[in-house]
Amino acid sequence: MASSDPVHEFDSLRAQSKFIFAVFYRGHWCPFCRGWLSKLATLSPAIVAAGGTPVIITAEAEKYLDDTRAATKYDGKAIVDPENRLAKELDARGLVHVAISERSGYDHGMAQPALLVLKEDGTVLESWAIVPSTMNLGGAKDRPALDEVWENVEAQLHGKSKVHNTYSTA
């Protein structure tokens, strides 16, 4: 069911973990999102082993969550936030600016792709959000490669410098 309080749910997950690896996606219908979440599914065991919690976040109706899970093999935490309350709160906190676009079927707008890796103490390890444009198909493509993001997060967790200064995109 849709998260009754997505902000509280996010904060609770963060408090229970060394860090949270949050990925916003558009919907089950988006092939670029499915690819991104499939990569998150393969990285999830390493994230969990490092003390983190992967979580996917969407403004899409909850009835599509099972389709998303089936298409991507992602079986971790999910926050369904059709009103985009979490996206707005994370922006207000200065952590990540998730673009919200008008789209049929999304009464309060569609959250565009974004990611936020946040430690329990509030330290931001990674923050990225798409700026929808014609060049990236309205926010569909040009996302950072999650395996490279994970390599940077892993390095920072061990007190080292980032491995990648820029990311490959898909």
UniProtKB/TrEMBL annotation:
InterPro entries: AhpC/TSA (IPR000866), Thioredoxin-like_sf (IPR036249). It comes from the Eukaryota. This is Thioredoxin domain-containing protein. GO terms for molecular function: antioxidant activity; oxidoreductase activity. Residues 18-125 form the Alkyl hydroperoxide reductase subunit C/ Thiol specific antioxidant domain.
